[in-house]
């Protein structure tokens, strides 16, 4: 059901790889709510994924390749987007993350530092690069909204989340610091949504993810939030209904973040 919450708004969606991607669902919801979008992903992901199908569904949205670790690519993305819309954008979704240490199952205490740098560059510093490039090109309109996706391992220890925990802590810090800078400059708001574990390509790379999803579900009074529900929440943050929300890390996790323990988890443990 559409409420036209994003009628007349224009935005960029990073990170739609396949139909499980949180960015994929968000692109669909934004268009349903009346937005016009540009889709972007790494060149290699565009070759492997099925983003063209999404683009068609989203009123033939342009698909612009950009590796988030390349300043040249991000500049090109904004140049082409500004030309396409003939104006700046009103919202940006940063839904990008990758760790080679996670992918290769390298334990946290033995992390490879080249891989760690790469994880930070792709998953965290990229948000700074996107915002700095946008600011330089004046590519985000007054009262625009930027959302990046994060996970509670930024605040609490989830050992198998590995160096992505540090990457997410950095992402949330950049959100606060750039949120201040873009707020005073152009009333642009910047927030992270801290999402429940969700079965996607990036999510499934984490060791023991299946068991972990069911643990989180049992711990959360409302259960795990789905990718579709995350898309709904993101739409509200792109809308004019949340204009004064900025520099926040917003938990979208069915209540998980404020739980100590639940009856469902205790009952599942059995007596010793
Ligand atoms: P996904 O695998 O569908 O999306 C990750 C995206 O990052 C892919 O589209 C991939 O192509 C893109 N990417 C990787 N390297 C890139 C590069 N160099 N340049 C441009 N794009 C690049 O998985 P998902 O789960 O939708 O992930 C989206 C975001 O949500 C990530 O930031 C992830 O950490 C976050 N998140 C995911 C959770 C989960 O359990 N799936 C939970 C909380 C947050």
From TrEMBL:
It catalyses: a 2,3-saturated acyl-[ACP] + NAD(+) = a (2E)-enoyl-[ACP] + NADH + H(+). SUPFAM superfamilies: NAD(P)-binding Rossmann-fold domains. Coiled coil: none annotated. Pathway: Lipid metabolism; fatty acid biosynthesis. InterPro entries: Enoyl-ACP_Rdtase_NADH, NAD(P)-bd_dom_sf, SDR_fam. It comes from the Bacteria. Its EC number is 1.3.1.9. The keyword Transmembrane does not apply. Pfam families: adh_short_C2. Keywords: Fatty acid biosynthesis, Fatty acid metabolism, Lipid biosynthesis, Lipid metabolism, NAD, Oxidoreductase. Belongs to the short-chain dehydrogenases/reductases (SDR) family. FabI subfamily. This is Enoyl-[acyl-carrier-protein] reductase [NADH]. The lineage of its organism: Bacteria, Pseudomonadati, Bacteroidota, Sphingobacteriia, Sphingobacteriales.
